[in-house]
Specification:
The complex is a heterodimer of chains A (305) and B (531).
Chain A (H helix, E strand, L loop, with lengths): L1 H30 L7 H19 L2 H25 L4 H20 L13 E2 L9 H5 L1 E2 L1 H19 L1 H11 L1 H6 L4 H27 L11 H11 L4 H23 L6 H4 L2 H13 L9 H8 L4
Helix pairs in contact in A: 1-6, 1-9, 1-10, 1-11, 2-3, 2-4, 2-9, 2-10, 3-4, 3-9, 6-7, 6-11, 7-9, 10-11, 10-13, 11-13
Chain B lengths: L1 H4 L15 E10 L2 E11 L4 E6 L5 H8 L7 E6 L2 E3 L4 H6 L2 E4 L11 H9 L7 H14 L15 H14 L4 E5 L7 H16 L3 E5 L3 H7 L2 E6 L2 E6 L7 H9 L19 E11 L5 E11 L3 E5 L6 H8 L7 E6 L2 E2 L5 H6 L2 E4 L3 H4 L7 H7 L6 E2 L2 E2 L1 H10 L1 H5 L14 H14 L4 E5 L7 H16 L3 E5 L3 H7 L2 E6 L2 E6 L6 H10 L17
Parallel strand pairs in B: 3-8, 3-9, 6-7, 7-8, 13-20, 13-21, 16-19, 19-20
Antiparallel strand pairs in B: 1-2, 1-4, 4-5, 9-10, 11-12, 11-14, 14-15, 17-18, 21-22
Helix pairs in contact in B: 4-5, 4-6, 5-6
The chains are: A mainly alpha (305), B alpha/beta (531).
The complex binds adenosine-5'-triphosphate and magnesium ion.
Chain lengths: 305, 531
């Protein structure tokens, strides 16, 4: 029994990593006042980029870096069109996702049955031999550890550094940021690209550490879940960890139940994590309006692109 | 004169040294509208330079172009005689400038400390502890009350103005541009502020201040530039021998200070239109800020509410509009208990308001003036389920307050209006509702002198028509000019009512500061505070 719990929860952590990366990336962009619905596309390009480079070089770490780069590149398209040219963010983001899906489907075909040597899980010394917590938290691939570290790092960046403060201010009142000598456009551009890098890293984890293969549209809407997670997390990176693990937990439980042969259609079962996400959003609702960056209001109300 | 004795820089170039900063021939157009036409303007070290002019004269525009926010179509800038380019506030800051904007530049969701850190941090990591110390020290030195750890959205307008002042001072700027920095500060605070400006001037800072208050100009300015319709019409290098009336005449030409002569007779006098029973309200932090407030406002009565801002004025005004829940007590209008009802019930009971912070509490930047009047102010006009804009335009043009206050054309977009013109729009809109109760918070903020006088006359007109007016103001002379009754909010209580004819302004100011423990020196015994 215990080993099942360990397996399900450990699986939850591993399967959350991709969403967590993407959610943290989206969070950075939204704190700067930009919604990037292209996150899904960034994850996909990241996954393919990582897979292709790993297949070519045999080095999954190089692959992960390439995946982040691909995500950043696609996010730069969003940043240019939505931030620099001022087009509608929501429409641009959707277009970017569709672009990412199209591009990866096209170039990904040749990789469909390719085998790669992905990232091996690393058991952290001492920590991994703790009862229960060890197998759940400390027997994972390096990218998963990185995602765990990243959340508090981003929290610190936002709360304690000058650029974090400027980024948050850009998401609240860009004219204030401008008046104290920063360029809100530059800050937003950088935030979106950095967010895209993280989304790409998320996709990379999926491809070269978690599933170790390439399938068309393999992110299956995780990018959108990430966008929802940011709202669930009230734009707080630490809360994003909780949200992502909840999603991953549902995913992992669903897989475990399928493996046990529960008599429910696998198609219905795989909808469960998304239902959990919806449920969480309903419960959280608009609990704290103060948490939402002010500039995002303009995006949703359509008074700004 | 200030300018000549600070002539450390090139004293032999004629009577004046080289200006620290100079704008020559600046022209700024917004579409067809010329906001600045061929403006020359200069600032010397160690001087306080006041800019005067009516609403929309172009004062904010020239300041913003010096600070790099607007880019002139023509003209050039010089620093100490050398041509410079100012493309952005970043350039302006590196040239040593700091600016307090008329509509302020603060992030409401941030604390005071974070807002100040945003403008002041040069290192990668924020040293908030040290900055907090610097804020407290500076605030103490210049007698400004600021709490570094309060979120800005919880502050009223005066509190925000103080934060802006501290923020700019801490940047260490030596050219300080101030756009109506005192528009909502109480008199005692203004005096401390002016003392601070004089001190900064003596330390060698160059200060530019836009203001509508001649008293402030006379109290500290060394030079004055007067603008009218986008042009500089006058620059004096000395204020010697100038008095208030002469300054105003420079500003608007022929000026007959009409004053308020007599009070129109009141219809339906004595009938109570609004009653407040034992009311208590909390502020945004959940602290009880006012309690046991009792007040009866009669038709044809103006009650002036005096007090230093932050003593519950904002909370009381919001409660009277149904925007803030009461902790205790009742609000009754015309025998109808309103407290607990939705805000719409307050509106339907004929309560109108001039908000304290119009930009945040009433203005939709992207809408036109007429659209602002359509969603509130003018009666609804519909024709086959569509807004009847033609009828609305006619109503707008026919509204007396629109004409009297010279509200900008109905098609202008609110975001493009000058600060005073936004205020004119908000005031005229509240008046157009023909309210039975008017809750007016700092209604004259940002208005030029002539418009302030016209507004005071309009308030008296409302009174004549049997409207009850609750006038919140930081300016005692304004209150004494029109109020029938005075109350003072201070230390969590509302004191009064007092008869303005009997209580000297001196004692009201004492009550504002010290609360009901105040003892009048002159009288030698506690003031009578009627229950
Ligand atoms: N961004 C803008 N777009 C269009 N018109 C503008 C803009 N900014 C200012 N104006 C117009 O330029 C003129 C001058 O405005 P400005 O704000 O300089 O006036 P002001 O002298 O500061 O007045 P106030 O005393 O009311 O603050 C006004 O007619 C105003 O409507
Ligand atoms: Mg102005």
């Amino acid at each position: 029994m215990l080993s099942i719990v360990e397996a399900v929860l450990g699986g939850a952590v591993r399967s959350s990593t991709a969403v967590l990366f993407a959610a943290l990336g989206e969070l950075i962009a939204e704190r700067a006042g930009v919604v990037n619905l292209g996150t899904e596309g960034c994850m996909l390009t990241g996954a393919l980029g990582a897979f292709a480079v790993t297949a070519a070089t045999g080095n999954p770490y190089l692959g992960a870096l390439a995946g982040g780069g691909c995500g950043a590149l696609l996010a730069a398209v969003h940043a240019y069109v939505a931030v620099v040219r001022g087009a509608n963010q929501l429409a641009t983001g959707m277009a970017v996702t569709i672009l990412g899906l199209g591009v990866t489907s096209f170039w990904g075909r040749s990789f469909v049955s390719t085998q790669i040597q992905g990232m091996e899980p690393i058991n952290l010394p001492v920590l991994s031999s703790m009862p229960l917590l060890g197998p759940i938290l400390f027997q994972h691939d390096p990218l998963t550890y990185l995602s765990m570290l990243l959340a508090p790092v981003i929290w610190l960046f936002l709360a304690r550094t000058r650029w974090g403060l400027a980024l948050r201010a850009t998401g609240e009142r860009q004219e204030v940021v401008y008046s104290v000598g920063y360029s809100p456009t530059m800050i937003r551009f950088a935030a979106v690209v950095a967010g895209g890098f993280l989304a790409g890293l998320g996709g990379a984890q999926l491809a070269v550490a978690y599933t170790l293969n390439w399938v068309e549209n393999m992110t299956q809407g995780r990018g959108y879940v990430a966008v929802a997670m940011v709202i669930f997390a009230s734009w707080n990176p630490l809360m994003a960890v909780a949200g992502s693990y909840l999603f991953g937990g549902a995913l992992s439980l669903q897989l475990a139940l399928q493996a046990q042969g529960v008599g429910v259609s696998p198609f219905l079962m795989s909808a469960v994590p998304y239902l959990v996400t919806l449920g969480v959003l309903i419960v959280v609702g608009r609990r704290r309006r103060q948490a939402m960056p002010d500039e995002l209001r303009a995006v949703f109300e359509g008074s700004r692109g | 004169m200030v300018v000549t004795d600070s002539g450390a820089t090139g004293g032999d170039q004629g009577s004046l040294p080289v200006p620290l900063l100079e704008a020559r021939g600046v022209t700024i157009r917004f579409g067809d509208l010329v906001a600045n036409q061929d403006v020359d303007f200069s600032i010397y070290p160690g001087e306080i330079h006041a800019i005067l002019g009516e609403n929309g004269a172009g004062k904010s525009t020239i300041l913003k172009s010096l600070f790099g926010v607007y880019h002139p179509q023509a003209g050039s800038f010089f620093k100490e005689g050398h041509p410079i380019r100012i493309h952005s506030p970043a350039d302006a800051r590196s040239l040593g400038m700091g600016m307090v904007f008329q509509d302020l530049r603060l992030v409401p969701a941030f604390t005071v400390l974070e807002n100040i850190a945003l403008a002041n941090s040069r290192n990668a990591s924020l040293d908030l502890g040290r900055l907090r110390g610097r804020i407290t020290a500076l605030a103490e030195r210049y007698h400004l009350t600021v709490d570094p750890d309060v979120p800005v959205w919880q502050l009223d307008l005066a509190g925000r103005q103080r934060v802006e002042i501290v923020k700019v001072l801490l940047t260490g700027a030596n050219i300080i541009l101030l756009d109506e920095p005192t528009s909502v500060l109480a008199l005692s605070e203004v005096d401390a502020f002016l003392a601070m400006l004089r001190r900064l001037r003596d330390e060698g800072h160059a200060i530019v201040m836009v203001t509508h208050k001649m008293r402030e100009v006379l109290a500290c300015a060394g030079r004055v530039t007067v603008m009218r319709a986008g042009r500089v019409v006058h620059t004096t290098n000395s204020l010697e021998g100038l008095n208030e009336d002469e300054l105003v005449r420079l500003m608007i030409g022929d000026w007959a200070p009409t004053g308020i002569t007599g009070r129109p007779a009141v219809t339906r006098a004595g009938e109570p239109v609004l009653r407040v029973d034992n009311l208590s309200v909390k502020d945004d932090k959940g602290r009880l800020i006012l309690s046991e407030v009792n007040l009866t406002l009669e038709a044809g009565e103006i009650i002036g509410v005096a007090g230093i801002s932050g003593n519950g004025q904002r909370e009381l005004a919001e409660a009277l509009l149904g925007l803030r829940p009461l902790s205790a007590g009742r609000i009754i209008a015309h025998d109808e208990t309103l407290s607990g009802a939705p805000a719409a019930a307050f509106l339907n009971a004929g309560i109108a308001s001039i908000p304290q912070n119009p930009r945040e509490e009433g203005v939709v930047p992207g809408l036109t003036v007429l659209e602002h009047f359509a969603y509130d102010g003018l009666p609804r006009r519909e024709h086959r389920m569509q807004v009847d804009w033609a009828a609305l335009s006619a109503d707008f043009a026919a509204a007396p307050a629109v004409d009297e206050l010279n509200v900008p054309e109905p098609g202008r977009v609110a975001a493009t209006l000058s600060g005073g013109n936004v205020q004119r729009m908000m005031v005229a809109r509240a008046l157009a509702r023909r309210p039975r109760v008017m809750v007016a918070s700092y209604p004259t903020q940002g208005l030029d002198i002539a418009t302030t006088q016209r507004l005071m006359a309009l308030l008296l007109g409302l009174r004549g028509h049997g409207c009850g007016v609750l006038l919140f103001s930081e300016d005692l002379s304004e209150l004494y000019q029109v109020a029938d009754v005075l109350v003072v909010v201070t230390h969590g209580r509302m004191l009064g009512p007092f008869d303005p004819v009997k209580i000297p302004a001196y004692d009201v100011a004492g009550l504002m500061v010290a609360g009901d423990g105040y003892r009048s020196n002159r009288l030698g015994h506690p003031l009578e505070v009627p229950a």
